[in-house]
């Protein structure tokens, strides 16, 4: 049960986040008329520090900070696939985000589907890219609320019954209002508090855990014994040979999928130039260090003998914090993770709303909508997305959101050929890309559902398993390449390329000028 000091600290941090959200309008104020670019991308004006805060705060969500240590608590080293993939994604972001930003800024693209529309001249392909992004984002948004509830319940801060539901609604209401009024500037400002709270609290928690449990050696030895081994080298704490293919393919597939999510691209598009994005990509591993420490806390919870509820391993670290930490520090940790959910949740709702307005509403419903009307519709859709996420959490089982998010990761990976490959070559035929997308979506969904909503599937008849999303992507690419060859041979026409990117794969310097404002 939460004590007074814990509750006071928690409320103080949450109150600070709300106050910061109110001041979001002062972040790069502008006298421009309302526009979707201004509301959803903060007028593409964020410098290196703000972009690092926002992009890191968007990528590393509250559910990441609970699911990874929960997996480490239950399965040992397999959970740490998230660490290499968030390191590998940095050089990929260095190349892809800066190049994509340059094209988007030059042509006024606000979403990645805008880029696909311009690159291939194919409205249907742009539509499926936008809808896939929305479909993959919505359960991810709901998971942020589940992460908050899991943390607060384990810490005794979340009341049972209707009172707890009101706490959740109140936490989300301030975010919803600030995002509605100020757009991306609200989560950008809150991301500064998230960074300070998470970095400070996690550093102190790890120091106290090491001091009380006898150092890292004692932690790993204790965890190894809890998992049934005699020592670290002879325990399930380490990867077995059979687990290595799943570990490697999960890391690779997650890397390729991460930069396809609309909320990550929205945070990237808000930067003030490609040089800023390259600087931020170099500095992003600092956030990865946080993730590794959270994973270590999952091992520490195992060593400390924390008994998480059955099927609720994500509560292990909050229970460890509640057991070992003084009330004020525990309140700071719980508040940091809560704020950690508010930032990505806000960006996700903005990204989903922007995709809907630009690539569905304007393209198919109201082509003559004014910029002011586009902003008004985007605000309404963003608010609806948040309300829908709250209703989803209250109305369905937690496992339903987790299952849909697992599918979302497989789905979003299927737009990689159209987006990432399309940045370097325009040779792929849009109809082949549509066919590849369809094959990847069907195959990926079938594999995940067949395995009982597991993201890894058996490789042949052996004991090895691999990531289903990567298998679906390989099928997708095979269909795309073969389909392009057939369609070109048949002379099937393609849409006009409206971008200034080269039509073929080149190894020379891309179109970016290197300046922050080309």
TrEMBL record:
CDD domains: SLC5sbd. It is found in: Membrane. PROSITE patterns: NA_SOLUT_SYMP_3. It is a multi-pass membrane protein. InterPro entries: Na/Glc_symporter_sf, Na/solute_symporter, Sodium:Solute_Symporter. Keywords: Membrane, Transmembrane, Transmembrane helix, Transport. It comes from Streptomyces luteolifulvus. This is Sodium:solute symporter. Belongs to the sodium:solute symporter (SSF) (TC 2.A.21) family. Pfam families: SSF. Its main location: membrane.
């Amino acid at each position: 049960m939460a004590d007074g000091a814990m509750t006071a600290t928690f409320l103080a941090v949450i109150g600070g986040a709300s106050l910061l959200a109110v001041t979001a309008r002062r972040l790069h104020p502008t006298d421009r008329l309302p526009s979707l670019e201004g509301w959803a991308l903060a007028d593409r004006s964020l410098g290196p520090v703000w972009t690092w805060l926002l992009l890191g705060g968007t990528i590393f969500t509250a559910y990441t900070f609970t699911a990874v240590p929960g997996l480490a608590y239950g399965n040992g080293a397999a959970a740490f696939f998230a660490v290499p993939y968030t390191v590998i994604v940095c050089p990929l972001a260095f190349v892809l985000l800066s190049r994509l930003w340059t094209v988007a800024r030059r042509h006024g693209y606000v979403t990645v589907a805008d880029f696909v529309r311009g690159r291939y001249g194919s409205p249907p392909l742009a539509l499926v890219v936008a809808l896939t992004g929305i479909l993959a984002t919505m359960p991810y948004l709901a998971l942020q609320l589940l992460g908050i509830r899991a943390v607060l319940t384990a810490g005794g801060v979340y009341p049972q019954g209707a009172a707890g539901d009101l706490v959740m609604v109140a936490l989300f209401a301030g975010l919803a209002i600030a995002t509605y009024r100020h757009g991306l500037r609200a989560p950008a400002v809150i991301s500064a508090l998230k960074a300070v709270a998470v970095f400070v609290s996690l550093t102190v928690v790890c120091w106290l855990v090491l001091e009380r449990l006898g150092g890292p050696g004692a932690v790993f030895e204790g965890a190894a014994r809890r998992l049934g081994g005699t020592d670290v080298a002879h325990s399930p704490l380490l990867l077995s040979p059979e687990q290595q293919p799943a570990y490697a393919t999960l890391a690779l597939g997650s890397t390729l999928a991460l930069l396809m999510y609309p909320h990550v691209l929205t945070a990237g598009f808000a930067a003030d130039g490609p040089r800023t994005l390259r600087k931020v990509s170099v500095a992003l591993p600092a956030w990865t260090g946080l993730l590794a420490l959270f994973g270590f806390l999952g091992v520490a919870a195992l060593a400390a003998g924390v008994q998480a509820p059955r099927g609720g391993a994500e509560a292990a670290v909050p229970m460890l914090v509640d057991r070992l930490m003084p009330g004020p520090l525990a309140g700071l940790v719980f508040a940091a993770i809560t704020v950690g959910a508010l930032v990505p949740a806000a960006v996700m709702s903005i990204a989903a709303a922007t995709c809907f307005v630009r690539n569905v509403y304007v393209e198919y419903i109201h082509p003559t909508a004014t910029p002011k009307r586009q902003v008004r519709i985007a605000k309404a859709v963003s608010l609806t997305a948040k309300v829908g996420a709250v209703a989803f959490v209250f109305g369905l089982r937690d496992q339903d959101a987790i299952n849909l998010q697992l599918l979302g990761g497989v789905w979003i990976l299927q737009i990689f050929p159209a987006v990432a490959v399309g940045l370097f070559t325009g040779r792929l035929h849009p109809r082949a890309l549509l066919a590849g997308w369809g094959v990847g979506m069907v195959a990926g969904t079938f594999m995940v559902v067949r395995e009982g909503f597991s993201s890894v599937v058996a490789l042949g008849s052996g004991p090895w398993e691999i990531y289903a999303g990567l298998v679906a992507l390989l099928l997708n690419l095979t269909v795309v390449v073969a389909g392009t060859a057939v369609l070109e041979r048949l002379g099937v026409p393609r849409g006009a390329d409206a971008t200034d990117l080269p039509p073929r794969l080149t190894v020379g310097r891309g179109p970016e000028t290197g300046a922050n404002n080309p």
